[in-house]
Amino acid sequence: MKIKFNQLLVVVVTAMFLFSCGSNSTQMRKNITGKAGELVVVISKDAWDATPGKVIRETLAQSHVALPQDEPLFDVINIPHAAFKDIFKSTRNIIQTNISADVAEPGISFTDDVWAYPQATVQIKAKNHAQFTDIFDENREKILSYFLLAEKKRITMNYKKIYEKGVYNVLDKDFNVTMKVPPGFVIAIQKKDFLWFKYETPEISQGIIVYTYPYVSDSAFTVNYQLPIRDSLLKSHVPGPLDGSYMTTEKQFEQVFNVFKHNGNYATEMRGLWKVKNDFMGGPYIAISELDAANQRVVNAYAYVYAPSKNKRNYLRQVEAMIYSLKLNNQKDNDKLNKQSDFDVQVEG
């Protein structure tokens, strides 16, 4: 059974406290090793080839949603217990299994920073394959969201102190929001209620567009409302390389749409593919739209990746972490309104 991406936003908040549990000390620990998205599973060959390995692969190596080519959520590497030496113990993401009749207390635990920092590890103990599968099935959403959140936290922690102040200051002053992006992002276009900034190399391009529009009704948080506004802005402000070409949304594939809360505010997330009209460029995007109730507006952050002939999962996760760092300057005002809204819902219910 695969977990749909729209389920993850429901459970990712639950995983946030799990990421902080375990040892808090980071002293005397190695830095994590391995590439972004790698995950080591310590498991016997018999279990890996049987149902336990199958449910692990179906969950953690399932295809990432809304990418132009097939890429797994995680690059899963299985390691036998006897081979789990120091070289693997500093890996960023680890699942340890213990499937034996001698197991006294079957269960699952989530522990940070066991051998390295910042590390995410999951330990699963079971008496047999069937019990392991039951434990994993009961916790698969927590497991997946735990590792996804760990990957996101690692990205953002890299530029909490070192970030592109030019972009930060414009967003702060002119849009009344903040967002931290790595050094190297430059502003491409700045208009009223519209800002496009990007990072480009000869091989890839990552861009983020922040724009706002008035909140007039709940329909402002639907795909049919958001897409025409975004495509209109992209057509006007994000030209392609050829005359008459411009960025737009690829409509051949359905957009992946979720409703959630971001910083306590009502929000939506949309994923899909973009393309350049009248040209051959394209790639994945992720966008969030957040209600600023205090100012009766919707704040939108749209992030895209262009990386021809390259895997795009990790590049997309980088810009995803950036737009999720978005914060409203007047969040305290929104907190008051959100509390009142929650109270009203509870009373009516």
Question: How is this structure best described in words?
Answer:
The protein is α+β, with helices and mostly antiparallel strands. Helix content is 34%, strand content 30%. The strands form four sheets. Strands 9, 10, 11, 12, 13, 14, 15 and 16 form an eight-stranded antiparallel sheet that branches. Strands 3-2-4-7-5 form a five-stranded mixed sheet. Strands 1-6 form a two-stranded parallel sheet. The relative contact order is 0.12. The model is unreliable at 9-27 and 343-349 (pLDDT under 50).
The number of distinct structural domains comes to: 2
Kindly report the average pLDDT value.
Answer: 91
Q: Which class best fits the helix and strand makeup?
A: alpha+beta
Q: Give the overall form.
A: globular
What is the beta-strand fraction?
25-35%
- Count of alpha and pi helical runs: 9
Under the CATH scheme, which class of the largest domain? Alpha Beta
CATH topology grouping of the largest domain: Protein Transport Mog1p, Chain A
**Main beta-sheet annotation:** 8 strands, antiparallel
How far the N terminus sits from the C terminus, by CA atoms, comes to 33 Å
- Number of extended strands: 17
Query: Which bin fits the share of residues in helices?
Result: 25-40%
Brief descriptors of the model:
single chain; 349 residues; alpha+beta; Chitobiase, domain 2; Protein Transport Mog1p, Chain A; 2 domains; eight-stranded antiparallel sheet; five-stranded mixed sheet; 9 helices; 17 strands; globular; disordered C terminus; DUF4837 family protein
Strand and helix map with partners:
Layout: H1 5-19, E1 30-31, E2 38-42, H2 45-49, H3 51-60, E3 75-79, H4 86-89, E4 93-99, E5 107-112, E6 116-117, E7 120-126, H5 129-157, H6 165-174, E8 177-178, E9 186-191, E10 194-200, E11 205-214, H7 223-237, E12 246-249, E13 256-262, E14 265-277, E15 282-292, E16 297-306, H8 313-323, E17 327-328, H9 331-348
Parallel strand pairs: 1-6, 2-3, 2-4, 4-7
Antiparallel strand pairs: 5-7, 8-17, 9-10, 10-11, 11-16, 12-14, 13-14, 14-15, 15-16
